[in-house]
Amino acid sequence: MKTLRTLALFSGSILFLFSCGKSSDITIANRIFDEAHVLSDVQKDSLITMIRNIDENLGPQIAVMTVVDTHGEMVDHYSLKKVRELGLGRKDMNDGVLLLVSTKGHAARIEVGTGLERVLDEDLCLSIIWEMAPKFTAERYGEGLIRGLDKVRGVLMVNKERIGKK
C-alpha cells in the first residue's frame, strides 16, 4: 500500500487517508457494509444503484463500509485488511475502490487500486474529501458517502479509457 495523502481536519475531527488497494472479483450484492448502522434504506439503495451503474458501465468494483471503530487498529491498517478480505476490484485491472468511514473514530479512508491511480489522483481525491467532510462532521454519513461516490462516478465516467492503466 502506498499512501498518497493524509489530510486531518481538526475542526471536525475527521481524518481522511487515501491509498492504493488490492483487487479481485466480488458481487454487487455484498458491497454495502453498514456495520455502524448509520445508513437509511433509501441511502443504501442509492449507493447500490450507483455501484451497479459503475460496475455495469465502467467496470471498477466499489464498496462502501461504515464501522463504529477500527478495534484499536489504525484506519489505514484496518482498511487495507478489509480490502484484502473483500478481494475488491477486477484482478486484471486492479481497479477497486473502498470508501470506509469509522463513526466513533472520526476517520475515513478511501483505498484506490493501482489501476485507478491515474484517474483518481491526489488532487481529485482531495477535492472529493473536502466535499464529504462537512456531512461526516454533521454525522450525516450517508449523505457524505453518496456525495463522495457520486464524485468518484463522475471522474470515472470522464476518464473511462484510462481505467486499469498504470
Unreliable stretches (pLDDT < 50, length at least 5) are 1-25
Strand content: 15-25%
Distinct helical segment count? 4
- What spatial form do the alpha-carbon principal axes imply? globular
> What is the fold-level CATH name, i.e. the topology?
Diaminopimelate Epimerase, Chain A, domain 1
Helix content: 25-40%
Total strands: the figure is: 6
Strand order of the largest sheet: 1-2-6-5-4-3
Radius of gyration: 14 Å
Structural class: alpha/beta
Question: What is the mean pLDDT?
Answer: 81
Main sheet?
6 strands, mixed
SSE arrangement, N to C? EEEHEHEEHH
* Structural domain count: 1
CATH class assignment: Alpha Beta
Give the second-level CATH assignment, the architecture.
Roll
Cα distance spanning the termini: 15 Å
Overview of the molecule:
A six-stranded mixed β-sheet has the order 1-2-6-5-4-3, sandwiched between helices. Helices cover 38% and strands 22% of the residues. The chain is of the alpha/beta class. The chain has a single domain (15-159), classed as Roll (Diaminopimelate Epimerase, Chain A, domain 1), CATH 3.10.310. Helix 3 runs antiparallel to helix 4. Mean pLDDT is 81; it is low at 1-25.
Entry summary:
The protein is of the alpha/beta class.
What is the topology?
Layout: E1 3-9, E2 14-19, E3 32-34, H1 41-57, E4 61-67, H2 75-86, E5 96-102, E6 107-112, H3 122-137, H4 141-158
Helix pairs in contact: 1-4, 3-4
